[in-house]
């Protein structure tokens, strides 16, 4: 992916919007791999608020102090959620992502104690028992297929007794839409997203 700086909003919207038509997981992960070096500046242009919203949700749901919680950041990308977590006092952070290039960026941010290459839905997640698992995705119609597949995977993990759902919360003002067609719930040009929090269960 090109490294040019200072892309304007419409360029970013076109690039990210095109990726929303990729439904095959391997191709999606390849797209993320090419995007990794530019990801942070592109999502900033899109006014991406998911990390802050996810950590708001986590803070509200947490039974104890943040420093005592072990958080597994699933699909951690470059580490934007970790930056938000650290700012709110969360210190034990593990991350997984299906893209090696994204993990390289996450490693560079220096906030995770452990990072693993792992594709959710294809292999077990490497995390200690009892940790909290945080995942997010877009909740607008253009992401419906991915969201449904993700939820099917989460349901299987819960039915198998591996994870227990704490929260599944839809939130507005996730990020700017990449096109006017992106969703009927778009408010002020923003689309919605969803935050999932799970507690990893101890093995029977
Ligand atoms: C939109 S980015 C979000 C990254 C980060 N959570 C954030 O808020 O900035 C989506 C990330 O999910 C990863 N990803 C997508 N599907 C995945 C899967 N099935 N397993 C693991 N990682 C996945 C991609 O590689 C990418 O880093």
From TrEMBL:
Classification via CDD domains: AdoMet_MTases (cd02440)
Ranges of residues in domain Methyltransferase: 71-110
Top-rank lineage group of the source organism: Eukaryota
Gene3D superfamilies xref list: Vaccinia Virus protein VP39
Secretion signal, residue range per the UniProt entry: none
PANTHER family for this protein: METHYLTRANSFERASE, METHYLTRANSFERASE-LIKE PROTEIN 27
Name under which the protein is recorded: Methyltransferase like 27
Native source organism of the sequence: Marmota marmota marmota
């Amino acid at each position: 992916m090109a490294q040019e700086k200072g892309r304007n909003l419409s360029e970013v919207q076109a690039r990210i919007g095109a990726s929303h038509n990729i439904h095959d997981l391997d191709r999606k992960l390849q797209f993320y791999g090419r995007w990794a070096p530019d990801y942070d500046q592109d999502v900033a242009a899109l006014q991406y608020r998911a990390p802050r919203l996810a950590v708001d949700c986590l803070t509200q749901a947490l039974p104890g102090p943040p420093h005592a919680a072990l958080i597994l950041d699933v699909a951690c990308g470059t580490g934007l959620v970790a930056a938000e977590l650290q700012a709110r006092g969360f210190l034990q952070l593990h991350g997984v992502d299906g893209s090696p290039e994204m993990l390289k960026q996450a490693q560079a941010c220096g906030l995770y104690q452990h990072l693993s290459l792992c594709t959710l839905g294809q292999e077990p997640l490497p995390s200690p028992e009892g940790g909290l698992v945080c995942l997010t995705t877009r909740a607008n119609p253009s992401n419906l297929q991915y969201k449904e597949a993700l939820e099917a995977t989460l349901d299987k993990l819960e039915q198998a007794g591996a994870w227990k759902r704490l929260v599944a919360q839809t939130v507005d003002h996730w990020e700017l839409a990449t096109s006017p067609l992106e969703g009927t719930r778009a408010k002020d040009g923003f689309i919605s997203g969803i935050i999932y929090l799970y507690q990893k269960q101890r093995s029977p």
